[in-house]
Amino acid sequence: MNKKQTRFFAFAASGVAALAFIGMTLHSHTRFGELTNAQNITPAVVHGKDVWHKYNCINCHTLFGEGAYYAPDLTKITQHRGAAYLQAYMRDPSKFYDENRHRRLMPKQDLSEQEITDLILFLDWVSKVDNQNWPPRPILVVGASIPGSDFSAQQQTANAIQGGAQPPGARPVNPDLNPIALGQALFRKVAPACVACHSVADGVNMAGPSLAGIGARAKERIAAAEYTGQAKDAAAYIRESIEKPSAYVVPGAMYSANGQSFMPTTYAKDLKPEQIEQLVAYLSSLE
């Protein structure tokens, strides 16, 4: 290839690349409204965005993978936490975590009720934007490992689960056939993932209570006089907690408000019956 041909090839390739870039950009602009559900941007959503900026939430959190990476990515937060949980959490984060033990540094912002409501509406709109699977996974921050604390046990449990080992308190399982093993896999893979809120390490409470010993604890719950659910045995109690989390709310627990559990109510619809049974089998094994 001589100099003239090289020059022509360079100009032609640059021109084709420029046209492709312009074409893709124009095509993206024609789809922005559809991808972002622009028709759902109400004045309340806009005000929620203003609240997000007013309190500099992005200084710690991220949206679509953009932000400080100091605290969890909130792109899909309303799909992992219900409005009741988010409202109670924003009113006073310290009621959910021991900041000295877990190093949860979320400050109490003293938001007004209207600000909280609109901020949740904004985050709900964000969660429904078609982000083409970016970021590729939710960024979950469950705390820092503190040597000698029960939180380090949570990290050990998470590592054990990822490696396929049994967490503390679970009976040995056959990973090929046993429904307990299938339930253990579901525990960390269903959406929203159970492990994002619940630990299986004793005393390690996260967004939800620790499920260590839940098999034995379920038997005690249904036998208690204050139990108001419909379950007749431990497995039924665990199944009820998955399908109808507000059927019975533990008195005095910080995981509910006004008689409504913060647990998502979508599992009965999103999971197949056999998947629920596998989860029940796994959780029942945690004695």
Describe the structure.
Mean pLDDT is 81; it is low at 141-176. The strands form two sheets. A two-stranded antiparallel ribbon has the order 1-2. It has three domains: 1-35; 40-141, Cytochrome c-like domain (Cytochrome Bc1 Complex, Chain D, domain 2, Orthogonal Bundle), CATH 1.10.760; 150-284, Orthogonal Bundle (Cytochrome Bc1 Complex, Chain D, domain 2), CATH 1.10.760.10. It has twelve helices and four strands. Helix 9 crosses helix 10. The chain has helices at residues 3-35, 43-54, 77-80, 83-91, 99-102, 113-127, 150-162, 179-189, 214-223, 234-243, 267-270, 273-284; strands spanning 62-63, 66-67, 256-257, 260-261. It is elongated and about 90 Å long. With 287 residues, the chain is mostly helical.
Defining key terms:
mainly alpha, Cytochrome Bc1 Complex, Chain D, domain 2, 3 domains, two-stranded antiparallel ribbon, 4 strands, 3% strand, elongated
